[in-house]
Target: N-acetylglucosamine-6-phosphate deacetylase
Amino acid sequence: MTKQLTLTGARVVTPDGVLDGGRVTVADGRITAVDAAPAAAAPDPADVDLAGHWLVPGFVDLHNHGGGGASFTSGTPEDVLTAVRTHREHGTTTLVASTVTGDLDTLARQAGLLSELVEQGDLAGVHFEGPFISPCRKGAHSEALLRDPDPAEVRKLVDAARGTAAMCTLATERPGGLDAVRVLVEHGVIAAVGHTDATYEQTREAIEAGATVATHLFNAMPPLGHRAPGPIAALLEDERVTVELINDGTHLHPAALRLAFDRAGRDRTAFITDAMDAAGFGDGRYRLGPLDVDVVDGVARIATDDGTPGSIAGSTLTLDAALRRSVTEDGIPVEDAVRAVSTTPARLLGRADRVGAIAPGLDADLVALDASFTVRAVLRRGAWVVKP
Model:
């Protein structure tokens, strides 16, 4: 048996609301109790005093390509673990590794490598972003390597992940797209609509076929129009769809973020990072799949020969920064922001019985934030990642 750990004094964000001066007890990597500390109780010297802090569940990132100068898209196991550690230090205790467009054999090999780290418990799954996307909305993906979503090829990648494939982003309007969605659903993989040029009607067809996620809503898809509403309206209005939002101040105007959050609500909104290698590392020249990326002032763009700004190439975001921005700048209530970085993505991954909330029986994945919503401590499965 491991020694019991008790965290006291924080404003604890629970599924039922905020517990002021709360007490969270941990043993054997799990939360064993969540309650209010007795007002007259003398403090135990062994307790961790978090007075003046928020205590929230560990963050869950559905869409992440790397960090700490390392990549999930082409890196070694050591590279992958470097990126994982970087995001853990920012509070992300559950993380899905995302690939980028490449040839099928390369993607299959990388999926095999990532699957081993899922099996070890370091990752929560594999997300294939590309190559089955639209050349019209390719973003930071190599157009030469794009292909239509052939169901057999989709199945090849799912099989290569050995049961760890969590999600696949598709341009579902492309030939084979709807059948590919059905293949994914059949194998328990989330079908996500993204990097798409679909119409409103085509997106509705994808949802009916089983698509349940909007990959970074607004980005890499037609804009919302009053006569041609496109995929954005279809994805926002359907209660079966969870929408990803990149809240870094670059990918979305605050008004667009609030529009999506208000329409989808906290139970259908998941903040993601879409992070690449530079997250938690700094400006410079990087590689994203086969493409060069320049990061300047924290903004990643495809490198160009003439010096003109290239397409945005992922982000340098961490989920603590997304939560902090949503609360301090966008006016989103703390409890709702916490659901967007923890509870909703955990539910989408089918892990709500283990992570995504502060409740007895769940993993002791906890993040302490100071009054400015800066990470001051991180606990993962009862072990300190960042000590208070």
